[in-house]
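I am sending you the entry underneath: sequence plus fold tokens. Let me know what the token row says about the fold:
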Amino acid sequence: MSLRAQLLKRELESALSHVTAILAAIELQKQTLENLSLLGIIEDREWVDLTEIASDLQVLFYPIAVQKQKSLEIQVGSFCKAHLRRSSTKQILINLIANSLNYCRNQVLVTLWVEGGRAKLTVIDDGPGIPDDLLPYVFDPFVKGENSQGSGLGLAIAKALTLQQDGSIGVKSQDSGCEFVVELC
């Protein structure tokens, strides 16, 4: 009976982890839909602690990474407050991490830090990389790879949200993976 109770406890903890991630995803989708319905109204900047965003991302993506048997590591610098648009910044990272988790072989590394008043965000994966012929267009709407199951909008949305914050976004790709680099003012 003790063994069965322990197994049941593990299953319940696992289920609770998934429920928490689902609820977080639903909340993010609500925010995204609200933002889309208010098209043209720009979210105000506020002082954002990137450790809070990292925590939200961990709750959202850790169960997905475990299910896909992938490693997801999110690292945050020591001083990480920046004047940003919170939900836009979070959505940029959601799009980049979701993309990387779909294409990585084994791992995704996310780093968030502030340098010279600018937030710097990187998402690195060990996937097959982006084909050379697609690379110049990867941030254009509806551009997607041959085996993509997405809509081809995720990276275009990430770019648009980055530009709204007077930032920049880029990608380096090779056979050993991709590195997305975002800088936000």
